[in-house]
Specification:
Elements: E1 7-16, E2 19-29, E3 34-39, H1 45-52, E4 60-65, H2 73-76, E5 80-83, H3 95-106, H4 112-118, H5 134-146, E6 152-156, H6 164-179, E7 183-187, H7 191-197, E8 200-205, E9 208-213, H8 215-220, E10 224-229, E11 242-243, E12 249-253, H9 256-269, E13 275-280, H10 284-292
Parallel strand pairs: 3-7, 3-8, 5-6, 6-7
Antiparallel strand pairs: 1-2, 1-4, 8-9, 10-12, 10-13, 11-12
The structure holds adenosine-5'-triphosphate.
Adenosine-5'-triphosphate binds at residues 16, 19, 21, 39, 41-47.
């Protein structure tokens, strides 16, 4: 059984004058998914999101949100919560007034008190926006996405500028929204967040998908890494290794278990200490670095 995707993008193109910013992009986001749109600077993520959010018209291609055109704002907009990189709240309004204003714009039902509590700004309710810290402003931006528990939530670099506790709190709220059935589209430059939380990732580079899939699909095609240091003099190793500028050895392998056990057995037999030993699958950062070298 297949249900209509929440977001359905087919052969989307966007040009700014002569510049082709989004090239034939196609993807779907299913109900309840957390989809991360990642990419290099200028890859076209914001442009793509702006079209899906209904802020910008496509040059060609089709975009459907809940089966409708995102330009049909009356039908689609109340079902979306959008946390932009900068919400542009009026500096003279208080936090409470700002949330009330957001609420009236969303046309969703909620209470200001509940939303302030969810984003942990109750104590700042009477404070003017101009007097908030960077992290508090970011939490106020988050309130725009949370108000009225929308079915579809866009989070554009949501944790930038947040301390660890606030980040964890934000993700707890997102987890709760997902339990309640919300679909989430995320952009972030914190790759570990995407790696931990996304169901699927679209990795954009120069307007197109370089890769798309689950985290394990994206990382599977790169070798795993074993890293360690050795005391001098360095004995002959049982496997091919390279040595980094920091003096650490790196073994890249598509058979981590076998090569790691070979290395450990060799170290045991030769009474060699493998210092700072680390072994693991490729991280998303490495997929990105591979992109940069294309
Ligand atoms: N209004 C515009 N007019 C002309 N070119 C634009 C406009 N907006 C964006 N661009 C260009 O389109 C490309 C894609 O921009 P976009 O902001 O979508 O990228 P992004 O993936 O969100 O980048 P970043 O990670 O740096 O925020 C960039 O090369 C950018 O310079």
């Amino acid at each position: 059984m297949s249900s209509t995707p929440v977001i359905d993008v087919e052969r989307l193109n966007l040009t700014y004058g002569d510049f082709h910013a989004v090239k034939d992009l196609s993807f779907q986001v299913e109900r309840g998914e957390l989809y991360a749109l990642l990419g290099t600077n200028g890859a076209g993520k914001t442009s793509t999101l702006e079209i899906i959010e209904g802020h910008r018209a496509a040059t060609s291609g089709t975009v459907r949100v809940f089966g409708k055109s995102p330009r049909d704002r009356g039908a689609v907009r109340p079902r979306m919560g959008i946390m932009l990189q900068e919400s542009g709240f009026s500096p003279d309004l208080t936090v409470r007034e700002s949330v009330r204003l957001i609420g009236s714009l969303t046309r969703r039902t909620d209470t200001v008190e509940r939303v302030l509590d969810v984003v942990d700004l109750t104590r700042k309710a009477g404070t003017k926006v101009s007097q908030l810290s960077g992290g508090e402003k970011r939490r106020l931006d988050f309130a725009t996405a949370v108000y009225g528990t929308p079915e579809l939530i866009f989070l554009d670099e949501p944790t930038t500028g947040l301390d660890i506790q606030s980040r964890d709190d934000l993700w707890d709220v997102v987890d709760k929204l997902r339990e309640d059935g919300s679909t989430v589209v995320l952009t972030t430059h914190y790759l570990e967040e995407a790696q931990q939380r996304a169901d699927r990732i679209g990795l954009m580079h120069r307007g197109a998908f370089h890769r798309e899939g689950t985290v394990s699909e994206l990382t599977r095609m790169l070798p795993a890494a074993i890293r360690f240091s050795l005391a001098e003099p360095v004995p002959a190793l049982p496997l091919q290794a390279t040595r980094g500028a920091d003096g650490k050895f790196l073994i890249e392998t598509f058979d981590l278990q076998k090569d790691l056990s070979t290395l450990l057995r060799w170290a045991q037999d030769h009474t060699v200490e493998l210092r700072d030993l680390q072994a693991g699958p490729t991280r998303l950062d490495d997929v990105f670095r591979a992109l940069g070298s294309d």
